[in-house]
Amino acid sequence: AALTVRFLTRRFIGEYGDMEFIYSHNLTVDGREILFHIWDVPYSQADEGSSEEKRIQWADSFVLVYSICDRASFNILPLKIQVIKAAKEGMSQEKVPIVIVGNKRDLHHQRAVSSEEGRLLALSLDCGFYEVSAAE
């Protein structure tokens, strides 16, 4: 998951908007070549009912990114994770890999969500947790 997060955060910051993208990326891990397909969906499009269901069924794992400077982006995470787990784990009984990522770590002076809150949320929802700075 950390490798995926690192790949995702290489994207040019000014590129974010209301568009969604699918990226493909080859990576060699332990001598095996792995092809990642990453469907990047901005939050403004994440509530579209059947489209959201389609995305959830398409994905094998999830990286949910919030801004540490925006409490609203953090507060929506439990509901999103509940929807993902209900859709994925209800069918297969297997734990779905979910990582919560706090972005904008470089803007610590504008921080609205503490690192501890992010870690505790991830722990309570059985998810991974990272804080990153796409700008760095």
UniProtKB/TrEMBL annotation:
It catalyses: GTP + H2O = GDP + phosphate + H(+). Pfam families: Ras (PF00071). Keywords: GTP-binding, Hydrolase, Nucleotide-binding. The keyword Electron transport does not apply. Its EC number is 3.6.5.2. The keyword Ion transport does not apply. GO terms for molecular function: G protein activity; GTP binding. InterPro entries: P-loop_NTPase, Ras-related_GTPase, Small_GTPase. PANTHER family: RAS-LIKE FAMILY MEMBER 11 (PTHR45704). Belongs to the small GTPase superfamily. Ras family. This is small monomeric GTPase. It comes from Nothoprocta ornata. The gene is Rasl11b_1.
